[in-house]
TrEMBL record:
Quaternary organization: Homotrimer.
Family per record: Belongs to the KHG/KDPG aldolase family.
SUPFAM superfamilies named among the record's database cross-references: Aldolase (SSF51569)
Species in which this protein is naturally found: Zhongshania aliphaticivorans
Lineage, uppermost ranks: Bacteria, Pseudomonadati, Pseudomonadota, Gammaproteobacteria, Cellvibrionales
CDD domains per UniProt: KDPG_aldolase (cd00452)
Biochemical pathway: Carbohydrate acid metabolism
Pfam families in UniProt: Aldolase (PF01081)
Record bears the keyword Endoplasmic reticulum: no
Protein name: KHG/KDPG aldolase
A molecular function (GO) term: lyase activity
């Protein structure tokens, strides 16, 4: 079993995909996720303090895998190798694939087409993120791609919500889905923390 597949199976059924708005937001969510025992989180690099947020979550959620999303460059991949547990990209890059292999970093590249899947498979990837899943065909596309590529395990992310994530999880070749809806706003945590905590505990059993 690959390290990338272990990450997804450990995160299942839903990987919390976080685009935190501030350090305060990151801390509030990390406290909530630690209490709910969420097994993994993917933090996007859209905020200038994203790497500090990665460290905060690593410190506050020591039992969880903390990964980085939207990894686009060599510099970012090298930093993931030093500071996080796994990397996810929105697309496929041969350079990043080679670098991840050299640094022993679990890496999940993104794909949206059959041609991209074939390119990733040529670099020995069998665990791929379908992104942006909801916009490129959703669960029906993944069902078709799974038939064409039976050796690939998918991690769909992008546009998936609480109302349709189960449509993806019923597919045999989907190990886990990515969901930003799993990350409540700081205001929601303040006003509705108990209900959010109950929802998270129900998802993760």
């Amino acid at each position: 079993m690959s390290d990338a597949l272990r990450v997804l199976q450990g995160a299942a059924p839903v990987m919390a995909v976080a685009n935190f708005s501030s350090m305060g937001h990151a801390q509030a969510c990390a406290e909530l996720f630690a209490e709910a025992k969420i097994p993994a989180i993917q933090i996007t690099l859209s905020d200038r303090q994203a790497w500090q947020m990665v460290k905060l979550c690593k410190d506050m959620m020591p039992f969880a895998k903390v990964g980085v999303g939207s990894v686009l460059s060599r510099r970012q991949m090298l930093r993931v190798a030093d500071e996080a547990d796994f990397a996810v990209s929105p697309g496929f890059s041969q350079e990043l694939s080679i670098l991840a292999r050299k640094t022993l970093t679990p890496y999940i590249p993104g794909v949206a087409t059959a041609s991209e899947i074939m390119a990733a498979m040529n670099e020995e990837h069998r665990v791929l993120s379908c992104f942006p899943a909801a916009n490129v065909g959703g669960a029906s596309l993944l069902e078709s791609l799974s038939a064409a590529f039976p050796d690939v395990t998918f991690y769909p992310a992008g546009g998936i919500s609480a109302t349709d994530y189960l449509d993806y999880l019923v597919l045999e070749k989907v190990a886990c889905v990515g969901g930003s809806w799993m990350v409540p706003s700081e205001q929601a945590i303040t006003s509705n923390r108990d209900d959010i905590l109950a929802m998270l505990r129900q998802i993760y059993g």
